[in-house]
Batch of 2 targets.
Target 1
Amino acid sequence: MAENRIEENRDGTIIRLQGGFYDVMTTQGEVRSRARGNFRKRGISPVVGDEVVLHIESETGYILEVKERQNFLVRPPVANIDQALLVVSAAEPDFSAHLLDRFLVLIEAKEIQPIIILTKMDLLQGTAEAEVRTAIAGYRQIGYQVIETSSETLEGVEEVRPLLREKTSVLAGQSGVGKSSLLNALDPTLDLETSHISKSLGRGRHTTRHVTLIPLADGLIADTPGFSNLDFPHEMEIEELRWCFPEFVARQDTCKYRGCLHLNEPGCAVKKSVEAEEIMSSRYTNYGMFVEEIKNRARRY
Ligand SMILES: Nc1nc2c(ncn2[C@@H]2O[C@H](COP(=O)(O)OP(=O)(O)OP(=O)(O)O)[C@@H](O)[C@H]2O)c(=O)[nH]1
Ligand SMILES: [Mg+2]
Ligand SMILES: [Zn+2]
């Protein structure tokens, strides 16, 4: 009887979006699916990581329902994430504390656990080396986990593996920093496409084109296309920003004013800590720049 059954409903997880199809992983394998019903009209657009209910009819799936999301990121578009691996390269492209802080804010705002992955440690040399090493120590001091890796020498790669166990992770980072290379280093059979960066531009070429959820090290990890810039979402308010800097949060109770934005208020404990070099000055500078950016954006709308 079971042999003849061609229609059934099954739960699954969207692992890929491609050419108008959703590839859904179920306990009985992958099913190429379409969205059924009026998802668009209802303002639902399924993304990778979504838990869905499929109706399966002769090997084609139809997504009947998208289950409620635990969380989701707009960029990269992934739902139900336990942690974000923020990938920044030590070189090629140059290490950017500004980009890393931008990233951290976006992830902190969603209350998703960030882990910082430094890639291309084998390329670190010259004057950049001291700067990057100081930054790494600084982020660790804040309490962030920072893993130093190289897909070339395989340094640190094995430290990533245990973090993936039983979690859904997302890799996020600029194009060309080595996200796909890191996954290949963890599992060469993945054979993900990677590219050569253009040295003159220091930019990658967006080799990974689609978000894909990949089973790896007893977990799921989303490889994503890199981005070239990252804007703050419209709903982000200035007041929210200071909550996205854990080392500011740790000190804000000693600011003279409640609700201190740590800008020009007198008796600001955060500013004092920056002066005492207990808070990285780059973090404080970036915070100020983000505040300005959101202010200016607010003026435009
Ligand atoms: N020397 C060195 N090169 C690396 C390392 N990791 C990656 N690369 C090189 O950097 C280039 C870009 O790597 P990718 O893995 O394609 O980067 P990506 O982050 O996946 O880029 P997108 O898919 O465009 O977002 C490739 O030429 C890699 O060989 C590393 O640890 N050391
Ligand atoms: Mg890639
Ligand atoms: Zn303050």
Target 2
Amino acid sequence: MDIADRLKLDVPVVQAGMGGGIAGAPLAAAVSAAGGLGTLGLLPPGQLKSAIATVRDRAPGRAVAVNLLMPFIGRRHIEICLESDIDIAVMAFEIDRALIQRLSGEGIFVMVMVGTEDQAAEALAYGADGLIAQGREAGGHLVGTVAQADFLPKALALAGSRPVFAAGGIATAADTRAVLDAGAAGAVAGTRFLLTHESGAHPAYRQRIIDADSTIETTVFGLAWPARHRVLPNATTRRWCRPDGSARRLPAAINKFSAPLSRIPDRGDGALLHLQHPALPFLTPITLTADMPAHWAERAALYAGDTALRLDRVTSAAQAVADLAP
Ligand SMILES: Cc1cc2nc3c(=O)[nH]c(=O)nc-3n(C[C@H](O)[C@H](O)[C@H](O)COP(=O)(O)O)c2cc1C
């Protein structure tokens, strides 16, 4: 199988599915129209259906990919993916054997994002068609536990003939070439695509990435989803993170007991962020989108990978694909 043909790619560059309104149809369609693979991030089911239709319309002849952010995926999301006949599903943050088999059985190419050898072996045993090997330097939520360059060879060794894409640390064409030389089928970038006109990120958030000189691995923005994530520092992390990035005791305890809340359907409008404040230890994973006030940058999770230290401009999505093309 030629993976570029199977995924309808001109260049081996994938835009990561980013939830919370960052990677909607405008971004995914622009990336795919430019010859890469755009991926829709988590959306409420009502919006997912029309977003898939928009990508199809704006990027004709390209594959349609949807990120399945598993803690927040409901039955309706899956029905819409099947009804809409998507081409690719990217499963992340839980590996669901029955779902892999169901989607695969319907002809959908199923990729699973993994960060350890155990996760990779599990995804492969359950029938994943490909892997995304995430390194710990990645932005957003982390399955990655070691640097991408260290994990990629291990994932490749397990995957055999199945394709492995590398995520984390991808900011330039040289980064893409490095992962291809190491054996990857392509490069997956999130933070670079957040710095595009088509992403849903607030301009103040983009500027903070451009100005960044550090990132933090933490669990502090863990209300309803107490998983590790990489963010930029802000007033909230300064108040509630220890010097090593870990969450202080109070938010850590609240986050731990809030995990079942992830099953409450997401309204997708960031309404809870109104109530969030850097002085209070109730810290949701909601990020800063263009429709919110700029000063919420001090309360929201500003997800970014270590590439933030190297990235210095906002471009069109097509330019980002061109910049990353090997
Ligand atoms: C703002 C943001 C949101 C993200 N949201 C998701 C998500 O919803 N689902 C997912 O599988 N990965 C998500 N990720 C992680 C990406 O899949 C990818 O692993 C990561 O962006 C790669 O690292 P990079 O940002 O340094 O390029 C997100 C990343 C960022 C930066």
